[in-house]
Design brief:
binds coenzyme A, alpha+beta, 4 helices, 30% strand, 7 strands, Aminopeptidase, globular
Amino acid sequence: MPPVISPATPSDLPAIFDLLDQSKLPRAGLDQHLGTTLVAKESKRVVGSAALELYGSAALLRSVAVAAERRGQGLGQTLTAAALDLAHRRGVRTVYLLTETAGDFFPRFGFRPIPRSDVDQAVLDSPEFTTACPVSALVMARSLE
Ligand SMILES: CC(C)(COP(=O)(O)OP(=O)(O)OC[C@H]1O[C@@H](n2cnc3c(N)ncnc32)[C@H](O)[C@@H]1OP(=O)(O)O)[C@@H](O)C(=O)NCCC(=O)NCCS
């Protein structure tokens, strides 16, 4: 059976943090956005995640991660599409992301590299931008309009 995508619950947080650690992605601030975090579960085990930080009409897509042994089977794309669908339903107009390792993964969803100076101020002020991700990380954006 394919993994089931569902909203994360507080009890999922330790497993999501483990997955982020294994994927070398930052944990910082994710607990503040659990209500807009999705998990992929296989027999109750968390094997994937994707989260949105909502800032009005802007959102930051973060924590897109798939367990090493489940990669290459479409789960990362399913999680990304589900997070974009959630953003659309929440009225988000622009989705941003930061990545050091997956700049070639996100263009298939319409994300394009942009300069930091073009990022919505509320997203620029988020912990992911200000502390968690190095300034060398690639910034990408996608319009949902
Ligand atoms: C990026 C990631 C989520 C992809 O998940 P996945 O389940 O392996 O991806 P899928 O199976 O849905 O998609 C596979 C496709 O994506 C491509 N792909 C996977 N990881 C990639 C990466 N890091 N960079 C570029 N392309 C990537 C594969 O080459 C494959 O391409 P194809 O369809 O042309 O054959 C996963 O590799 C991961 O958890 N990486 C570590 C964390 C990370 O870097 N997250 C992104 C930053 S938030």
